[in-house]
Design goal:
26% of the residues lie in helices and 24% in strands. It is an alpha/beta fold and 455 residues long. The longest helix has 19 residues. Bound molecules: flavin-adenine dinucleotide. The site of flavin-adenine dinucleotide has 40 residues, from helix 1, strand 2, strand 3, strand 10 and strand 14.
Length: 455
């Protein structure tokens, strides 16, 4: 049995521990992290998932289908402790060109195994099935494309009335990421996985293989024997890889989300995740516009801003919270904690969401005090994750999980556990190997991946 040290108790490290210990019976596993589990990036997400991954090949669709299979199985085993729902992602557009792009992307993704495309244009039978608010069963796979104005009004009366097409991704929704992580962690600990509060500060090799891991705790420095070292350090994967003299090709973007109290009940509590797929200009009033146009930093806010403003209800029972996100100004940066956020973010987000859901305008005069938090997307240029062996024998990575680490975690952890134990892995796993940059089968496709339609 290998002795495994996992650096990082975010969702990636925890899922790896689970899939080694619980699924495969590995007994010597230590999860090392100076922070409480899941507390750096994994508890900051929007907690949404989908199997809709347009792209030049099917690798992301396969990974996400597998991950969702694993989540659904776990949800069944635990009486849905982590509240997996399947309300779907609703991409809405008022533009003909964007509608055509969405249609093309839907057909492409169907080809990779994301499920069928059903078009509701008012000509055939009315077969659109709305998603239930809770649970993850009884929802058709694939996507529904709705252009029938009556159907749009019946099912999405709160959307911008200029909406000409809605693409509803059906194997999609959200969950409690914290509860998913704790479900995996508790099960792993029951199988003997130990958690050590400390920071990995070095990885030693012997004969070129991983041999020991140096950990600094609050009181001492330890040298832990290890046959396998897993780099699951989230935003710090590059630093940790350097302990082995390896360079990991990642960069970072800061992403923020807004928790907004919709106390006037504007958005129905059973709404899906809603995404405005068009670029937009915010209708500032004259005074605001003049003020923003004056500042070098704020001038861009009066110009056209990118597509992707999105919102969903958060919480059950009496909750009136909405989560709002819109990456209207993403730049590359290096991770620094604590994060600082644009003070204009709440105003910009609220206005951007109003294009999607016009009734939110009631909050323009007096918006409740919002809560902003966020973290870093750690990304590769092609925005595919890194899952597999590093160059040093015995070292592995599960990282660059960008804005999809929660939904990918179960699939990625399972895949990495298979790599570690030398099991056969599915062919799509090639696209995620750190060695892909020199793989003649994978490399030519990398340039064709982009972040379009990704959140
Ligand atoms: C605003 C926002 C919204 C998002 N929305 C979604 C979404 O809707 N759906 C989705 O699937 N994903 C989403 N994500 C992405 C998702 O949250 C991340 O991809 C995921 O949490 C990354 O998990 P991780 O385990 O790799 O990293 P982390 O959660 O950051 O965990 C890494 C851990 O490694 C530890 N570590 C680092 N260095 C060391 C060291 N030297 N020694 C020991 N430990 C170390 C850290 O302390 C940390 O605990 C979102 C992210 C953000 C920021």
């Amino acid at each position: 049995m290998p002795r495994v040290v996992i650096c990082g108790a975010g969702i990636a490290g925890i899922s790896t521990a689970y899939h080694l210990a619980v699924t495969r019976g590995v007994t010597h596993i230590l999860l090392v992290d100076p922070r409480p589990p899941l507390s750096l990036t994994s508890d900051k997400s929007t907690e949404a998932y989908r199997n809709w991954w347009p792209g030049p090949d099917g690798s992301m669709v396969h990974l996400m289908n597998h991950s969702i299979d694993r989540m659904e199985a776990l949800a069944r085993e635990t009486n849905n402790r982590f509240l997996l729902n399947r309300r779907g992602y609703v991409y809405a557009t008022a533009r003909e060109d964007v509608a055509a792009e969405l249609m093309a992307a839907a057909h492409q993704t169907a080809q990779w195994g994301a499920g069928p495309v059903r078009v509701h244009d008012g000509r055939g039978q009315r077969t659109y099935v709305p998603s239930p608010a809770e649970g993850f069963t009884g929802v058709p796979p694939g996507v529904d494309i709705i252009t029938d104005p009556q159907l749009l009004r019946d099912h999405f009366p709160y959307l911008n009335p200029n909406t000409r097409l809605v693409l509803h991704v059906r194997r999609a929704g959200w969950l409690s990421a914290q509860q998913l992580g704790m479900t995996l962690l508790e099960a792993a600990r029951e199988k003997g996985v130990r958690l050590l509060r400390g920071e990995v500060v070095g990885v030693m090799t012997q004969g070129g293989r991983v041999h020991q891991v140096r950990v600094r705790t609050h009181s001492e420095e330890l040298l832990l024997p290890a046959d396998v070292f897993v780099n699951a350090a989230g935003p710090f994967v590059r630093d940790v890889a350097r302990f082995l003299g390896e360079e990991i090709p990642v960069y970072w973007e800061q992403h923020a989300k807004l928790a907004f109290n919709d106390y006037r009940h504007i958005l129905p509590r059973d709404a899906p995740l809603l995404i405005w797929s068009d670029p937009q200009r915010i209708p500032w009033d004259e005074e605001e516009r003049a003020f923003l146009a004056e500042g070098e930093e704020t001038r861009r806010l009066v110009e056209e801003l990118p597509a992707g403003a999105h919102v969903r209800p958060e919480g059950g029972g009496e909750s009136t919270m909405l989560l709002m996100l819109w990456d209207y100004h993403v730049t590359r940066t290096v991770p620094r904690f604590p994060l600082e956020f644009d003070p204009l973010l709440p105003d910009v987000l609220l206005r951007g969401m109003t294009t999607l859901v016009p009734s939110l305008r009631v909050y323009w005069e007096r918006a409740p005090k919002p809560v902003v938090d966020g973290g870093y997307y750690t990304k590769t240029e092609e925005n595919l994750p890194l899952i597999g062996p590093m160059s040093t024998p015995g070292a592995y990575i599960i990282g660059a999980l960008s804005g999809f680490g929660i939904m990918a975690a179960c699939g990625a952890g399972d895949l990495l556990a298979a790599h570690i134990l030398g099991e056969e892995v599915p062919s799509y796993a090639r696209a995620f190997l750190p060695a892909r940059y020199t793989d003649p089968q994978v490399y030519p496709l990398l340039g064709a991946w982009s972040s379009q339609w990704q959140l």
